[in-house]
Amino acid sequence: MDAVVVGAIAIAALAIGVILGWLLAGRAGEPVRVKLNEALVNLAAEAEKNRRLGEVEAQLASERDSAASLKAQLAGFESGQEEREKAFEARLAELKEAKDALSAQFSVVGGKLLEIV
Length: 117
Fold this sequence. Notes:
98% of the residues lie in helices and 0% in strands. It is mostly helical.
């Protein structure tokens, strides 16, 4: 009979615990549920931020590669421009020398023509 009494007391204690837990969960559980929902919303927002961060980092790497390529291309254009300017200056100097030589030759020819006439 002792086992029956102990079993009955255990079942009664279990029933009282379930009823008390249900009552307390109904009253005190609401703020916990609200906090849990807020935590879930915050977690989802952070997950979205992390996803976007990955996309932005990939885009940043792509832009950096593009910038490096454009810098190399610009350096090539600038060096080509410097070479063209040097060639232009050299050609201009050649033309001035040719002009001076032709002027000298015309002076000589003109002098000879005046001597003949």
